[in-house]
Specification:
15 helices; three-stranded antiparallel β-sheet; binds uridine 5'-triphosphate; alpha/beta; eight-stranded mixed β-sheet; about 30% helix; about 475 residues
């Protein structure tokens, strides 16, 4: 929109936009225009001016396919699970101790940065704001943000260097995330080492008519463009250069809803560096065909993550002679990239494929009433980070045990899986395991938790609890010497 056009916004719809809406068959979004006040008109115009109208016809075309399945860019019948290194496994081609030493070196020279993707709407969980604020610490009641930021503080304490952190927010999470970080100054991280950036939105489209939906007279229903929006948004907001100024050469990415995530694990980083991978990724063993997890597959040296919904049933159920599923490398969205790879990929990030999701989206009906459908009525569009994988010259896949690093919070309490109670139990089990390794026992039925900022691994436990101690009451095991009971 030109300046002159913008200055006219209080009263009239800019001509360019009118033409674009008419050409796209979307003039219905202006149905309430005459009744909107100046603020409402400005809000609606602001939104409409951000829609890429050239891309819109492509969105409509995709939505009209009425299927969420995109043609796989890899020949699945010929694909295999790529060789995986296993965390801590002596038979790895690179000894774990060698990998750990290399990872430590990278962390102690400040060469590693991190991206936390926290722009999701958390609809399954029923979030009204950022999922990062959800309190899931089993004893501390700490939020996801506190638990995850704590891990970066623990790394700084051990290695003496900050891990610069870029946090991706969205229209759904941006304001509250920024407020929270202001009220609790960067949760103890150095403010100059935290970069908050916001991803783009894409419009939701009515599945039946291909039209934009209004969820208020002055508001089009939009949704964040998926975690794959990360790269474009990071580059546009100067985030890649920001990492460069901090001396970052390797960048890990992780998701806000996995408080066990270990993107900065020394051994993982070591494998990433020692295999000279441009893109490394953590996986957990997929054991049953019905598990709703994407899998890493390889064909002719190209790696790709295939979503569970895109993997045909018979292929998903196929087993190897040793009993493992043929496609068993379940993606958990913890990645490491070279910064130079992200610099290169940023140039093509816009061309990452759009994935379709059928969702229930509230909308105004023709009479202007807000309808909240029970069944999916709309198509949302998302890009995924893992679609960068085929662009990488070399990929390293590292298998971890779920109890080490995977406890996703997706569903509300009482759900069969990935609910708050499952996540809390996983955090307690994780603490119990590490405490047992450090020679500390815990009374039956007692909840324990490791202070994320205080305990990086079992060697930190010895700083606060001596071997042979026993914990008799709920405790957050932290960095200060403490009494177990
Ligand atoms: P999910 O795909 O599980 O989505 O996100 P969600 O928004 O958390 O939950 P639902 O699907 O609405 O119930 C996985 C990770 O990707 C981030 C989320 O914040 C989470 O860390 N994400 C997702 C983004 O950052 N942006 C997006 O557009 C989507």
């Amino acid at each position: 929109m030109s300046d002159r056009e913008t200055s006219e916004t209080a009263s009239a719809v800019p001509q360019t936009l009118s033409r674009q809406l008419a050409a796209a068959g979307q003039t219905h979004v202006l149905a309430s225009w005459d009744r909107l006040d100046a603020a409402g008109r400005a809000r609606l115009l602001g939104q409409l001016s951000l829609i890429d109208w050239r891309q819109f016809s492509e969105l409509q075309r995709l939505a009209a396919q009425t299927t969420a399945v995109l043609p796989p860019t890899i020949e699945l019948t010929r694909a295999v699970t790529p060789p995986c290194l296993r965390l801590g496994a002596a038979e790895n081609s690179i000894p774990p101790a060698v990998a750990r030493a290399r990872g430590e070196q990278a962390l102690s020279t400040g060469a590693v940065g991190a991206i936390l993707v926290a722009g999701g709407q958390g609809t399954r969980l029923g979030c009204t704001g950022p999922k990062g604020l959800y309190r899931v610490g089993p004893v501390s009641q700490a939020s996801l943000f506190e638990l995850l930021f704590g891990k970066l503080r623990a790394v700084r304490r051990r290695f003496g260097r900050d891990v610069p952190l870029a946090i991706m927010t969205s229209s759904a999470t941006d304001a509250e995330t920024r407020d929270f970080l202001r009220e609790h100054p960067c949760l103890g991280l150095s403010p100059e080492c935290v970069h908050v950036f916001r991803q783009h939105d894409l419009p939701a489209i009515d599945a039946a008519s291909g039209r934009l939906l209004l969820d208020a007279p002055d508001h089009v229903a939009m949704a964040p463009d998926g975690h794959g929006g990360m790269l474009t948004a990071l580059a546009e907001t100067g985030g890649l250069d920001w990492f460069g100024r901090h001396g970052v050469e390797q960048i890990v990415s992780f998701q806000v809803d996995n408080p066990l995530a270990m993107p900065l694990d020394r051994e993982f980083l070591g494998y990433h560096l020692l295999t000279a991978a441009e893109f490394s990724t953590q996986v957990v063993r997929k054991r049953e065909p019905a598990e709703r997890v994407g899998v890493v597959v390889e064909n002719d040296g190209r790696h790709i993550v295939v979503e569970y919904s895109d993997l045909p049933g018979p292929l998903a159920a196929e087993r190897l002679p040793d009993g493992r599923l043929r496609f068993h490398a379940g993606s958990i969205a913890v990645h490491a990239f070279t910064k130079s790879f992200l610099d290169r990929a940023a140039a093509t990030a816009d061309s990452l494929p759009l994935h379709l999701a059928h969702k229930s989206v509230a909308f105004l009906d023709d009479a202007g009433r807000l309808v909240t459908p029970r069944q999916p009525n709309a198509i949302k569009f998302e890009r995924f980070i893992f679609d960068l994988m085929p662009l990488a010259a070399r990929v390293c896949v590292v298998e971890i045990e779920p109890e080490q690093g995977f406890a996703p919070l997706k569903n509300p309490a009482g759900s069969a899986s990935d609910a708050p109670e499952h996540v809390r139990a996983a955090l307690v089990n994780h603490a119990r395991r590490l405490l047992a390794q450090a020679g500390v026992s815990v009374a039956e039925g007692i909840d324990v938790e490791l202070d994320a900022a205080g305990i990086l691994d079992e060697t930190d436990i010895h700083r606060v609890l001596s071997s042979g101690s026993r914990i008799e009451k709920p405790l957050v095991v932290g960095c200060d010497r403490q009494s177990p009971s």
